[in-house]
Amino acid sequence: MEKWSLMTITVLLALTVRWTVSLGSYSGAGKPPMYGDYEAQRHWQEVTYNLPVRQWYFNTTDNNLLYWGLDYPPLTAYHSLVCAYIAKLINPDWIALHTSRGYESQPHKLFMRTTVMVADLLVYIPAVILYCFSLKETSTKKKVSSALCILLYPGLILIDHGHFQYNSVSLGLALWAALYLSYDWDLLGSVAFCLALNYKQMELYHSLPFFCYLLGKCFKKGLKGKGLVLLTKIAGTVVVSFAVCWLPFCTDMEQIMQVLRRLFPIDRGLFEDKVANIWCSLSVLIKIKNIISPQTQLKLSFAATFLSLLPTCIKLTAQPSLRGFKFALVSCALSFFLFSFQVHEKSILLVSVPVCLIINEIPFMATWFLLVSTFSMLPLLLKDGLLLAYTVTMLAFLSVCTTSFSILEKTSAEDLQLKQFSLSLKGYVPWLKSFPKIVRMLFLLSITLMAVLSVMSATVHPPQRLPDLFPLAVSVVSCLHFILFLVYFNVVILWASKNSRSQKKIS
Questions:
Q1: SS3 helix, strand, coil % of the chain, rounded to 5?
Q2: Alpha helices, DSSP H, located in 346-434
Q3: Burial of 1 (0-12, 13-18, 19+ CB in 10 A)
Q4: 332 within 8 A of 347, measured Cβ to Cβ
Q5: How many Cα atoms occupy the beta-carbon half-sphere of 27 within 13 Å?
Q6: Which secondary-structure segment (H or E) carries 258?
């Protein structure tokens, strides 16, 4: 009974923080003619309610795709349609065809913010709570602490309840899928992940760990017996899930192809804005977009992404375990973020939520990563007028993690899951004895650098000839962090003891 009381308080605190952030500004507020993501979500409600399904993804006189054309999978469109029906009951002007463009008012803002809050309550928050309760060999206090830290992660709060999006839906569905797999409910897990993928195509970042884990499990059971039966069931479940989601668009092949063209717009280029990945950071020195053709950029990014995630996928397929699966979600998503094509700064959330899943195992590194991931979106948050919300939520998150997990005391090689790796280096690296102290120093240096750049970005005007100085500095600094984190997570995965007690083996 006590754990439910503590968890209820945790959820109420998380909702209070979300609602407080939602009182602030949002993407594109009062900035015609395109406004921002807030208007994009409102416009999709307008389109899905007023136009037949066959026109949702096509450019027509009533649906100008250059004005926030729908570019997410069918489940996002259906969600927009449900919201539109509710909006119609409250105020038809909010979704009136053409005349509602750029509609802004306090009642409408309240409605839109509430839709995000409801999505959080229905999908994401229950998944977090049940995941934390499912943690084995963990005290009630640690389970509640994990839930509190996950629910107070500032990145997701600032983007969904500040900037304005519905990332908690797709991420929540992916979390449900991971939760189902932890109970060996593989078919339910497959359905949940298919729903996540059909809500936002960026869930492809998580697709390979799900595929490799389930495939490895089938191999372990034997492909001539139970393994083949399980593989057949999973394949059938995936096909049926996709068929149901895409059913209204299966009237002809042109409909399907048009939706796919909208979901994967190759012509947008290698990256957008100042995103903290390899390609944007390299462009400071080498103008990749100018010297390499778009097709070559696509091939280069594919090759780099594939090679960077290959070792993790091979290890997970050969030795499927829930622990390995969670770390693979982090590593593969980070590889996609750093090396893949057409990455947005908000895509770092696809790495951050899997990191939240291992915050109870490696609280120090998880907290560090989650702080950097939020910092990497600083230029976008400043653009949206969310400086105060950013500052308060970052400080609150750091304080909660430091208090709950005593993170500065969890910096030994064993605490960071690097014991096997450190043993292999023993005798070759003389400074290993000072490892905890070095890690703490690097963490404090990182926090200081992020704080200084945050203050300078908000208060100092850059030189006229270098207008993007601070956004680029934030991107490059964040990217360097992410590269080191990618190396760290891969070391943890590849050097994991085969007989580790924490690793749940598949019988």
A1: 75, 0, 25
A2: 349-357, 363-375, 378-383, 387-405, 419-425
A3: exposed
A4: no
A5: 20
A6: helix 253-263
**Nearest to 410, CA basis, from 446, 378, 435, 377:** 435
Residues 6+ apart with CB under 8 A from 163: 26, 27, 36, 37, 346, 380, 381, 384, 386
Query: For residue 444, which of 400, 417, 408 has the smallest C-alpha distance?
Result: 408
Tokens of 374: 């939020």
d(CA 259, CA 203): 17
**Terminus-to-terminus CA distance in the chain, angstroms?**
34
Whether residue 354 has a cis bond before it, omega within 30° of 0? no
Share of the chain above pLDDT 70, in %: 96
pTM for the full predicted model? 0.94
The pLDDT value given to residue 214:
97
Q: What is the dihedral of CA 296, 298, 304, 309, to 10 degrees?
A: -160
Residues 359-410: tens digit of each pLDDT: 999 999 999 999 999 999 999 999 999 999 999 999 999 999 999 999 999 8
Q: Please tell me what DSSP assigns to residue 285.
A: T
164: left (phi over 0), alpha (psi -120 to 50) or beta: left
Q: Which residues pair with 194 in a beta bridge?
A: none
